[in-house]
Amino acid sequence: xxxxxxxxxxxxxxxxxxxxxxxLIALLISIFGxxxxxLSSTRQESKIIxxxxxxxxxxxxxxxxxxxxxxxLGSDQLAPLLGADAYAYNRVIDATDDHRSYVLEHDIQAxxxxxxxxxIGALPGAMISDQLVISRALFxxxxxxxxxxxxxxxxxxxxNYFPSENLTEAFAFFSKYTDSxxxxxxxxxxxxxxxxxxxxxxxxxxxxxxxxxxxxFQRISxxxxxxxxxxxxxxxxxxxxxxxxxxxxLSQKMNRQMDCLDVLLKYLAQQHIQAIAFNCPISxxxxxxxxxxxxxxxxxxxxxxxxxxxxxxxSADRVVLPFEDNEFIDGVHLNLTGGLRWSRxxxxxxxxxxxxxxxxxLLALANKCLI
Length: 371
What we know:
By secondary structure, this protein is α/β, with parallel strands linked by helices.
């Protein structure tokens, strides 16, 4: 009987061992397969990294021998500032390569009698955390601007379409270059190399894309995103969409993005780069989607962060007459005429930051000489 029990015990023990070994083998196969998949994804990502909106942005930033004097960072809400150039100068703007704002350069020169080059760093759907990683990647000691303007609206702090800070295109691209010198070196040949991207849009055709940049992780080519001088986008009521984007506004996401703004402004101060934070215009209907307690927290927290880090804070609804629906293409994006009107106070407040003239003198000049 004892021998029989022992035999049964050994049989069960063998089965248990076989089961454990089989489980471990399956686990190792799973881990190995996951690793191969990750490596494959990494290789695929490295193949498509050129042609992303972030790549075009970095390419344009380092395209000159000297850094721009002024950099404006933000989401596709900055597209109307580029559109102001199209409107004022009857130019065709290609959002891949055209990142200079000649309207702002003209106005700032009129105000200060100094020529300062202005670079518009617009990326689709960029959150505040993206502006932080972009700044760390672009602004080295040898290649930094004199002033950075951070432009945003509530969407850049609470957008539910972007559930995590590390899932954006900007993070995927710029986080690879925490040392800004390495990014500059990686793009060192951009002034001489020719990139053979196919132009898929005809400048002269009647087909006009919407006034925004390419979607995250979507390759774009020269000619894909064009702004024409006569773009006349009709207003789109996107209240339903933004009701979802703004759901649960006072969340931990909001706090994390506020912390990123704090770190960003602190970093700029450490680099001795002057900073201005601009709260961009949004439509009255879009603003009403957010409760009063949100707006109080939003404004108070940003004001406190800016004071702490020596940055100016300018909110559009305090310094500009309200924008009408006919100056928007939707709840958060201005059209070309709205972009031109917004560029004027932006120029004044940037000029004021240089302290070369008093604010009263700048206002007097603005009424006489701005576009």
